[in-house]
Specification:
The structure is a homodimer. By secondary structure, chain A is an alpha/beta fold. Chain A has helices spanning about 20-30, 50-55, 70, 80-90, 125-135, 175-200, and strands spanning about 5-10, 40-45, 100-105, 115-120, 140-145, 160-165, 210-215, 230, 250, 255-260, 265-270, 285-290.
Chain lengths: ~290, ~290
């Protein structure tokens, strides 16, 4: 396979997820931190206007603006639609400075610890995940693509990419421990790519645990669309932990419990993510899988 | 002392602190929950436009818009300035439906548990605090007024008032446990006022621990005003715990520790509150006092 020559590190795709923004600013002050012998690294603050106003986005979610259909649609003129086109035309496949690999830095109010979100199950990704977990066994590997959906995320602009999702962190807040762990994870990914390019990756045949998204569950809502229940205290902050059929997932404002009606044990993630109330998503259901 | 006949419960003074908003909506669906024999209870969603856009405020912080000077200034025409005037003209002293006591519901990203913020040390307040702590010893009593400052908070619109501050909760998120605990606290305050009106309060001579704000500490910043450090991991989520001179309070993005330079043990609160980055406040320093 060809080498990965150009890596793009992106912060602030969501303006109120400031861990990635301050990491990118740090890397811009100290560029040697992200340089490796066989590759060139670039940084990008993806949504500076959203950061300036302390919001996820100005007009629309930038991290849902990268489908090919939207990128090629001249009638989409919102701030984020324009920004997506600029980013794609610069760093996308066929752009002026095309990246081979993009690392997009996010945080979540869900208790997802250190999560790496991958899109494909090619060997490069599986080996990357195995390498990262060998350094830190607490890292979780999430495949969030639900097959029926188009893929509009920033990390899809070039051949290889991943999203780092770290939490629980409130929007607009820095958590020093998670900041430092995110930085370590970025260095580990760059080291992996360096070893990949140099052909010095250790052969690994370890089993790898991944979490494959299957569907999402919304909050119970009334006819006006207003939520009628909260995440149940027994489920709050329990991302990646087994949820059994019949266990409580919501509690209404009137103290009635609502139970999980699936047939199998599942592993919810993005539980109580602030930005997903408006997206109609209280949690994302995943299945735990072992791959080799 | 005269009776407290009219109590106002306020949610959504900040549009992204949604616990109070959903509590007010619950009380509006079930008004009997907040009725007591000797008093009339009202509810208010203070900043509906900020709630609609998922932000703390539209133009300016509503909970800093109630100084007498601002209320009487006809040149202030921002959304929140107008809203403050409307609220004051309705529920303030001399308003069309004047309240005697206001309970203003807030959340914080700081780990402040269940905090009641009081403004005066009159017997009514001290007895209220003692009563609440007798029901739940985890409740903290904070006097946040720093004498040199004017008092622009919503809970100052009538003779008696308090602010309930609950956390840690991310902005835009409901935490079911803290929702239920906040509701219990409101019921306890109403019960206290009912007993006060009926003259059936037990005489209490217990010692009461309060936290008196003395000053605030900002993040280290560069010449452009950008923060250069984060709350130190040893201090994160340690609200109300003793901070000793020489202990680390910040860590820079370059991993340098910054230490507390005061001369005495203090008790920081509002540590890493998201909304206070823009206010130049990383934490609020308090002294622990015993009152009788």
């Amino acid at each position: 396979m060809s080498k990965i020559n150009r890596v793009l590190i992106v912060g602030g795709t969501h303006g109120n997820e400031i861990t990635g923004i301050h990491l990118v600013k740090k890397f811009e002050r100290h560029p040697h931190l992200i340089q490796r012998q066989s590759l060139k690294t670039f940084t990008l603050l993806a949504n500076p206007q959203a950061y300036a106003i302390g919001k996820r986005y100005v007009d629309t979610d930038l991290n849902r603006s990268f489908s090919h259909q939207d990128i090629e649609n001249p009638h989409l003129t919102s701030y984020e639609a324009q920004r997506a086109k600029e980013i794609y035309q610069t760093f996308g496949s066929g752009g002026s400075q095309p990246a081979d690999f993009v690392i997009d830095l996010h945080t979540t109010t869900a208790n997802m610890g250190l999560t790496i979100i991958l899109d494909h199950k090619e060997p490069l990704y599986l080996q990357l995940a195995t390498y990262l977990i060998s350094l830190n066994p607490n890292i979780k590997v999430l495949y969030s693509r639900i097959e029926s959906l188009d893929r509009p995320h920033l990390d899809s602009i070039c051949e290889f990419g991943c999203t780092i999702e770290v939490g629980a962190i409130a929007q607009g807040v820095l958590d020093a421990t998670l900041f430092q762990q995110t930085e370590k994870l970025i260095h580990a990914i760059l080291d992996y790519i360096e070893n990949y390019n140099q052909g010095t990756l250790p052969t690994s045949k370890n089993q790898l645990t991944i979490y494959q998204a299957t569907h999402t569950i919304d909050y119970p809502r009334n006819d006006s669309g207003e939520i009628q229940a909260m995440i149940h205290p027994q489920l709050q902050f329990k991302d990646y932990q087994p949820l059994h059929p019949g266990e409580a997932i919501f509690i209404t404002f009137e103290d009635e419990e609502i139970f999980y009606e699936g047939d199998n044990i599942v592993y919810p993630v993005f539980i109580n993510e602030a930005a997903y109330y408006e997206k109609g998503m209280a949690m994302c259901i995943t299945q735990k899988e072992e791959v080799f």
